[in-house]
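Workshop exercise sheet. Pairs work together: one partner reads the sequence aloud, the other fills in the structure field after running the prediction. Swap roles for the next sheet.
Pair: D.N. / O.F.
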Amino acid sequence: MTGPKAPIALSCGEPAGIGPEIAALAWMELRQDCPFVWIGDPRHLPAGVPITEISDPSQAASVVAKSMPVLPLSFAGNAEKGVADPRNAAGVIRAIETAVDLVQDGKASAVCTAPIHKKALIDGAGFAFPGHTEFLAHLAGGSQVVMMLASPQLRVVPATIHIALSEVPKKLTPDLLRNVTAITAEGLKTQFSIPSPRIAIAGLNPHAGEGGAMGQEELDWITDLIRTLRGEGLDVTGPHPADTLFHAAARKSYDAAICMYHDQALIPIKTLDFDRGVNVTLGLPFIRTSPDHGTAFDIAGTGKASPFSLIEALLLARSMAAGS
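Structure field:
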């Protein structure tokens, strides 16, 4: 079983968060047309969810309509909702590694990851990566990757991510922006099936610097880099003032927007489509999606968690694997 017919490998994420319960809700919604295999400790799933433990993803198709296929891993700890247990850190990491192994072996069509709790992984297993994305890049052999947030209304890529705003002008270099743009363009072609992707690049400063009155980076190098990228055949425009880049008419002019820092990218997509945003990692040699939210310890186990973002992440993974 290979390609889009293979199930999606869904790693469990942090057991004390909402990951297990939204996985069960997603199975109930998608079991007829988007099969996935949940990788984790069955003890951590909500009580009463019908499951079938399997040993190979190829077995999922025969059971998914009536029960949730589970590739079982044994974790050291239980899962008290809202309280991360560092003893489970090794199991969480192993679930991610297993998902990657499956997709690299052709036994899964894509990887979808439930949210992790980085402090628990650090405390319990000495996790040495800033997050999921960097760990996945490591497992893929050191691939250079970028983070895209995607929804039916908008795709955005932050060139810099989890750093202080004061650090952005130092980290944002011509080489970084060039690489982010190139990886985004290639990802749109190969994973989103857009043959000639249109990419809009936001300015760093208000009004894209307004001719130097509000900042020099656009004049010093951003405009020249965009001109060079166009000369190399990429359909890129900018630098655009970020405050006019995300209204409905503007969004029709591009397939993805590259933003200069975290909030410049995430505020518009979360405002437009909070429940349906999906985290996509571009640059990996396999498809990876994830819901665009965290472990939500405050509502874990209360029945308030929404599965919508995970459902969208699974559906997008299926679409990408099918090449559509």
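Discussion prompt: The longest helix spans residues 174-190. What would you look at next?
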